Amino acid sequence: xxxxxxxxxxxxxxxxxxxxxxxxxxxxxxxxxxxxxxxxxxxxxxxxxxxxxxxxxxxxxxxxxxxxxxxxxxxxxxxxxxxxxxxxxxxxxxxxxxxxxxxxxxxxxxxxxxxxxxxxxxxxxxxxxxxxxxxxxxxxxxxxxxxxxxxxxxxxxxxxxxxxxxxxxxxxxxxxxxxxxxxxxxxxxxxxxxxxxxxxxxxxxxxxxxxxxxxxxxxxxxxxxxxxxxxxxxxxxxxxxxxxxxxxxxxxxxxxxxxxxxx
Length: 263
Prior knowledge:
Belongs to the glycosyl hydrolase 25 family. This protein has 263 residues and is an alpha/beta fold. The chain has helices spanning 2-40, 82-87, 113-122, 138-152, 179-195, 206-212, 215-218, and strands at residues 50-52, 58-60, 67-73, 92-100, 107-109, 126-132, 161-164, 200-205, 223-226, 240-247, 256-262. It contains 7 helices and 11 strands.
């Protein structure tokens, strides 16, 4: 009888130990998952995990992330056959909706914007947009914000609204704009777009993101990094990498920028 009781007690202890181990394992699994979510959008990537495949397109070999291949286009690409673009394996397109002139400072809608965004959407290609800014005052920035919102209001954007500020030439209207102003304009543009429910990206190459902007401030928003090299060199986390400006895609008669979106 006593032996039977001892066996029952031992059995209960073993069950309790097993339950305890299961709880510990589940807790570790959940904590690791939370850690991955919290650090996923802040850690630096391992450059060696970026690999160009046999089709000449960039891939990212990291099972913590998923990727999509896309292009960014403007009137410079002229007329595009979006059906062929889709069939070539392109997942998304970032389309220039407009720009402010680099010298005269006037606002312009990209002449191919409507044709491009409607053609992409018709062929089930996810779209985002970018605007080239040369705003030098808060008033001009607000004009650009209002201009972009009006252009995109009738379209469903699955990808971000992107802020592109860069020098057109040495004598353009941005030449005298301070680093602080450039940074503040990028932040204010993104804040306004996110207020309207859009995701955002701030575009730039390594020099622009690290020197013309205050990187510590702008990296609160997702970055669109431009560098036509095999391995990224930006000392910050980025959401999208424009890795080529000489892509060849069926349906586009010119070279086109290629992008890797990481999420």
